[in-house]
Amino acid sequence: MAPVAATVLIGGVELAAAQSYELIEAAREEGTVTTVALPHDWCGYGDIIQAFTDKYGIEVHETAPEASSMEQLDAIRASATNAGEDAPDVVDLALSFAQSAQDEGLLAPFKVGTWDSIPAAVKDAEGHWYGDYYGVIAFEVNTDVVKTLPEDWADLLGEEYKGAVALSGDPRTSAQAALSVYAAGLATGADDDGEAVAKAGLGFFADLNAAGNFVPEAGTAASLIEGKTPIVIRWDYVALADRDSVDEPKIEVVVPKSGVVARPYVQAISAHAPHPNAAKLWMEYLYSDDGQLGWLKGSCHPIRFDDLVNHDKVPDAIADKLPPADAYADVVFPSIEDLGAANLTISEEWDDTVGAGVN
Predict the structure, then answer these.
(1) Chain mean pLDDT for the chain
(2) Same structural domain for residues 37 and 111?
(3) Distances (CA, A) of 168 to 2, 158, 198
């Protein structure tokens, strides 16, 4: 099988041995790859989809851009007996759904050419699913109100942040808010297991509430802009999008020095994909350097971020719009088991430990 010449590759030399004329031609014969749950304003997907079509001449048939992970899996289940025109070839799932989908036989294994540069902690060893991009929990700050930027979790307990710090939601029901509690716990040095980290995080928020710094209101872009919640703890990519779209007030995004916690999404090919070769080529593109940089342009850190940085593949024009690369050097990907234990502990003990609801 002859490798594709470098001039037709998207991601540089890493894919030279992985892509082939045969795969590209087989994908072109299929003519289409069907996606689900890829809104154009999410992680740069609009530009990524267009770039794939421009490169290979293959249509991306987009369905249900706002679909949830469960709805994506339901679409795969339905396609097993009725492969209609909207049957998905590929899915983009929350990590917590990946293993159960694999166990159910909904995902087809495939290892992309850059497989070895995907961290082992966020991929199935046989290639049924693999992390694609991630966000980390960060501080979004209205600098018209907050004059001194907090650099780490412990800073939020300071006198200057009275009535300033909010979560993005109720941690008993919001995955983003629960992971924020987990991150705060990790920053204390608790790292035995999910329950221990969650208990430490609950203790941190109890101290934050006792200091009068915690705002018992779900922080949003609107409440941050108004100054009601001038520091919101949330995904960095959401905060960065706010920063880049709001003129006033000035917004800064801080990745804390410790407790840098990520939750990746994962890519997978449907076990019933109507266009299996186009699905494989789509994956090869997403995990090429250009595909990964497409997510980074959309303020989502691609799973191969460390590899891109180590090989000087991140253009200055992109890097200058993001927090420093070394801020992500110690990023932690909690296991599904640890997150499950933490979420249970948080939901059961938030009231008694913290004593503040989130409206």
Answers:
(1) 91
(2) yes
(3) 51, 20, 17
